[in-house]
Amino acid sequence: MTTSEQVLIPVLLPAKADPLRLAVAAYLAGFKGQSRTHTESDLRAFLTLCQERGLEPLSAQRPHIELYVRWMQEVRRFKPSTVSRRMAVVAGFYRTCVIDDLLAHSPAEHVRRPNVPPESPTLVLTHLQFEAMLTAARLSTNEHDFALVAMLGLLGLRIFEACGADIEDLSEEHGHRVLKVRGKGGKVVLAPLPPAVGRAIDRAVNDRRSGPILRTRRGTRMDRHCATRRLHHLADQGGVHIARMHPHMLRHTFVTTMLDAGVDLRDVQIAARHADPRTTTIYDCRRENFDRHAAYVVVAFVAGG
Fold it and tell me: Residue 168, by phi and psi: left (phi above 0), alpha (psi -120 to 50) or beta?
């Protein structure tokens, strides 16, 4: 186990704990669930590189952080969004160090970050492609395929939410069949199940009373890697030729389909469980629905006047 991995293990620290270990634990304590897992992974990448370069993280200066950004861009060839995300984690870590009086100032404070386009880069399925995926999943001999596509594309779940859902999370509330969803930051919400989604889940559950809703052929809980492989297979079966098919593509399709159907932007935000309405707006800008472009309204108004 490397020094960086040991630092990142959450434990109850003694009073005279190593300052770096204490700083990392204090920073990660502010996150929960998947957010903590992803933040820990990004911070580990930085601390591991520091270890390989013989640099003490709490002694780093702004040029070191600038060089870390250049290394991610020019050596690892990371996308601007990845570089920006990892730098946000590093900046947050050093901000915590300043708050806890471990450092006088943050070495990441004035580090330049790459520009990230405001539009969501995720590809979206057309209506015909999504219908083809649903048909392929419904006809599949794997009873979990239909539930997977339905939970992602018709319910809008994130992949970790779908894979983490258990049979015990199914219940009824106010006459609606619902699924308890554990989302980002450990937030728990009840998602109503439309009949089509309910039937897909029933097919996957069969006669089981407990355990994960989505399982592999071996009977273990499905993870994101298995789900991605299943979606690739269904895309081939359905004749959907699209590059880099991945689970979030179906959630993206769920959001854009709501917008195309005329669902109010606020209702879309609630259904997608976006904490920031600007996230929903990004989806709206990306879909390029020319049928509702304001230019048509202007021309109709002027011609009518």
Answer: alpha
User: Which is higher by pLDDT, 140 or 277?
Assistant: 140
> What secondary structure letter does DSSP report for 72?
I
Q: What is the pLDDT of residue 272?
A: 81
Integer-rounded Cα radius of gyration of the chain: 23
Give which of 53, 1, 58 is closest to 24, Cα–Cα: 58
SS3 state at 20:
helix
Among 257, 231, 266, 80, which residue's Cα sits nearest to residue 146? 231
Helices (H) and strands (E) in the chain, counts: 14, 3
Residue type, 180: K
Return the SS3 of 174: coil
288 to 78, 110, 240, 266, 283: CA distances (angstroms)? 27, 36, 21, 19, 10
- Are the CB atoms for 237 and 136 separated by under 8 Å? yes
pLDDT in tens, 152-180: 999 999 999 999 999 999 999 988 999 99
Between the CA of residue 110 and those of 24, 39, 56, what are the distances in Å? 21, 21, 20
pLDDT digits (tens, 9 = 90+) for 1-34: 444 444 454 444 455 568 899 899 999 998 887 7
Task: Give residue-wise pLDDT tens across range 129-142.
Answer: 999 999 999 999 99
DSSP states of 124-159: ---HHHHHHHHHHHHH-SSHHHHHHHHHHHTS---H
Strands 188-192 and 170-173, how do they pair? unpaired
Sequential DSSP letters for 84-110:
HHHHHHHHHHHHHHHHTTS-SS-TTTT
- Cβ proximity of 143 and 206 under 8 Å: yes
As a whole number of Å, the end-to-end CA separation of the chain is 75
